[in-house]
Amino acid sequence: MPESKPASGEKRLREILAVLRKHHVARGVSPKELRLIFEDLGPTFIKFGQIMSMRPDVLPMPYCEELRRLRTNVRPMSWETVEAEVEHALGKPLGDVFSRFDREPIGSASIAQVHYAELKNGEKAVVKVRRPGIRDIMERDVALLHRVSGLLKIVGRTGDTVDFNQVTDEMWSAALQEMNFLKEADQAEEFGRLNSGIAYVTSPRVMRRYSAESVLVMEYIDGIPIDDTAKLKAEGYDLDEIGEKLAENYVKQIVDDGYFHADPHPGNLRIRDGKIVWLDMGLMGRLSKRDRYIFRNVISAAVRGNVNELCNLLLVFCEPSVPVDRPRLFTDVDSLVNRYETLDIGSMNMVDVRDDLTTVADRNGLAMPKGVSVLGRGLITMEGVISAISPNINVLQVMVNHLSSKAADYMDPHQEIKKVLVSMAQSGRRIPEIPSQVSELLKMGIRGQTKTNVEITGSERPIKAIGRIADRIAIGFAEGGLLIASAILSTSNLPKCFLGIPALGAAGFFLAAALGIWMIIGFLRRRK
What we know:
This protein is an alpha+beta fold. The chain has three domains: 9-74 and 135-177, no CATH class; 227-427, no CATH class; 460-527, no CATH class. The protein has helices at residues 9-22, 31-41, 43-52, 61-67, 79-90, 134-147, 164-179, 181-194, 229-234, 239-257, 289-304, 307-317, 326-341, 350-363, 370-389, 395-405, 407-410, 413-430, 434-447, 460-490, 503-527, and strands at 98-101, 107-108, 112-119, 124-130, 201-202, 215-219, 224-225, 259-261, 269-272, 275-278, 284-286, 319-320, 366-367, 496-498, 501-502. Strands 1, 2, 3, 4 and 6 form a five-stranded antiparallel beta sheet that branches. A four-stranded mixed beta sheet has the order 5-10-9-7. A two-stranded antiparallel sheet has the order 8-11. α3 (43-52) packs across α7 and α6 packs antiparallel against α7. The protein starts with 8 loop residues before the first helix and ends with a helix.
């Protein structure tokens, strides 16, 4: 039976409101209730909840932990719908391509579901089938999410400081990337090329001939789920070796390739024939050459405790939303470095580091680029996977070791030589000027003409506050003058035109009253 068409916007809004009433959201929403609400609202909201579960900077940790339990297996499509979608994409009957096609799906998620199949030539495959109309359904739900985004503020702590519209856009961007299976095929092939030289890493081969935008056919890979530690041990695998190789490969994806798996949860990782198998390239992250350079230098500066360099890198990397108070930024970063200085890298975890950096950035009005949130989620997910299978392996330590071992590879000799030559040339031009400058400085000292220019940084706010006070005092004097002048005019022999008061006197009183009301409103606003 074919899938039903998406409900209209108004009908869907009524459905959402009915679910909210069912869970009595007016009384507040507990972590468990929030998860149940998302499950009742369907695929779009499940995907939204999964994104939110990785954002402790947005929701309190208990909510994040509960949202991680959102089911990945949503109600599967009917066989008739699957068959129709595959035949439409292939342009021929199912039996002309496959000798076997299992009706029951291996897995069913919010955007697509996966079936096991075998080609006519005997090759084993998995067929990923997109839900029909899912783009229209999710696009409509995203529009409604923007309209009801204030609901999530009920959960507490968030208030007006969290932009849930931005989180919704982030989810929609990720969903769009996952919906186009031809793009996923491109991503899978690029990932395969970048990791082809790693002996212990592999990924499924894409069968382009049978793939389309809505159907993706790939090599079937079985293997052992990476979190099935009992089976891995029984097969003779060393869990610490797996953890170390997994961390090393993920760090390589980030700092060397700038192209990394953005959803490295256990369901997307297998172990087969001694190799780590990466599955599902629907959601990938990308870092530009510039971002990788800054990221590597941030790690290096943090390890060396170079606060000044860290501040400069943050200012280059982030987007200031307000004028940056550099002394305060330096103090905050210095405090952060001092806190971690006494800790061993192996004892640190990504969640704490991410939360502390986010706090410093928010306090100083620095907005992290979008790619950083994807990277942060990926690293935190990877840390969780590795800690579950091999607690002795620390991702941060592996990253520092990787950067140290490849420091020479990251250096561009041509750029470094160019910098040195430019610096030497600039210094050489200044050398002949030094004697005359010293002589001039001594003459000015003898004549008492030397001056010292001092720039007081961080004083902008007090100066602005003093300026505002001076403005209010000036307005107060002006108002007092108006009242006195108007009173004098009222006792003069000028013609009376308003309540027995001369026109100029009445105008003065009205203007003084307006100024007074304006000052009171301003005072009340500042109190808020």
